[in-house]
Design goal:
The complex is a heterodimer of chains A (191) and B (182). Chain A is mainly α and 191 residues long. Chain A is built from 6 helices and no strands. Chain A has one domain. Chain B folds into 2 domains: 74 residues, Rna Polymerase Sigma Factor, Chain: A (Orthogonal Bundle), CATH 1.10.1740; 79 residues, Orthogonal Bundle (Arc Repressor Mutant, subunit A). The chains are: A mainly alpha (191), B mainly alpha (182). Chains A and B meet through helix 1, helix 2, helix 4 and helix 5 of A and helix 1, helix 2, helix 3, helix 5 and helix 6 of B.
Chain lengths: 191, 182
Amino acid sequence: MREEDLKALWKQEEEHSPMSIAQIRHDSEAFQKRARKGDLIEYFACAAVVLCSSIYAWVLPSFRMKLASLTMIVATLFVAYQLRRHAAARALSPDSAAASILEFHRRELVRRRNLLRDSWWLFVAPLMVAMLVFLGCLARDRPEARLPLLVFCGAVFAMGVAIGLYNRWQARRLQRQIDELDSLSVPPAIR
Amino acid sequence: MPKESTPDGCQDQDAWYEQLAREYAGALKRVAAAYEANAEERQDLLQEIHVAVWRSLSVFRQQCSMRTWIYRVAHNTAMTHITRERRRATKRLYTLDEVAETLDPHDTEAITEHKQIVERLMELVGRLQVLDRQVFLLYLEDMDAASIAGIVGIAPGNVATKVHRIKALLVRQFHVRETDHA
C-alpha cells in the first residue's frame, strides 16, 4: 500500500450532517450547566459541613466546643472560597481554545501543577487544623474518650501528610511533562 | 483538503459557522473518533468540538489561517475531553517510540479490508500520548511539517523527527511504501 492510499482511506468520509445553529446554542448552554454541576457537588459538601458545625455551635453547652465548631465553619468557608477561586470548572474560553496545541497543553499542565503544589495549604491544612482543634477540645471535655480521640487525631494527621506527599509527587510528575514540552517548543525568536 | 475561508465583515457568526461546519465536517469527525473510542461519548465530543468552533469564531481576527484555527480548537477541545476522562479511567499512553513495542507487527499483514485498516489506525492513534497523537492525525490529514508545526506549536525540526517515526511505524504496521515525489 502506498502512503497516499493510506491517507485517502483515512479521509474517506462517511455521511455526516452538520449540527443546526439551534442545536449548537442548546448544547453550548448544556455544556456550561454540566460543568457547573460538578462544582455544585463540592459546594453542597461544604454547606453540609457548615450546617452540622453550626448546629454543634448552637447546641453544645461547652464554650470550648462552640469555639471549635466555629473554627470548623471558618475553615470550611475558606476551602469553599479557594475551590471557587482555583478549581471551579470553567468552559473552554474561545481565546484559549485557539491557542497552539502545545501552548494550550502547557497552560493546562501548569494550572494543574500549581493546584497540586498549593493544595496542601489551600485545602488540606485548614480542614486538618480545624478537625484537630475540634477533636482536641472534645478530648478535654470528655477525658474518658481521650485515647480513641488521640488515635483519631493521629489518623487525621497521617492522612493529611499522606495527601500532601502524594500531591507533591504528582506536581513533580507534571513538572517533568512541562519540561518535556518546553524542549519541543518553537524558540520565541522564530515564533 | 477544505478550501480556506476568510471572515466577511457583514457575515454573521452563525452563517460563517455553517459554512465551516460543512467544509470541515469530516475532519472534525475524525478528530473526535481519534480521541474517543466509545460511540456515545464520541458523539458528545463531536458536539462539544462544534460548539467550541462556533464560540471561537467570535474572537477570530485572522491571527492564523482558518484551517490552523479550526484544527487548534478541535484538538484543544478533544484534549480537554480526554484529560477529564483520564481522571476516571487510567489508560497508559505511549510515545511514538514506545508504541511500536506494544503492537504485534504480524497481525496486520493479513488485513485487506479498508474498514479494518482504518480501525487499526484508530487503535494505534488511541494508544499515543497527546502531542504524538496530534502530529499523527495531522500527518494523516495530509499536512506538511510546516503546517503541523503551526497548529501544534512545536519546532518544525521536531515535527520532521516525529513524522519520520510515524512513517517507520506505518511501514512496520501497514507495510506502507513512501510516495515517490520525484
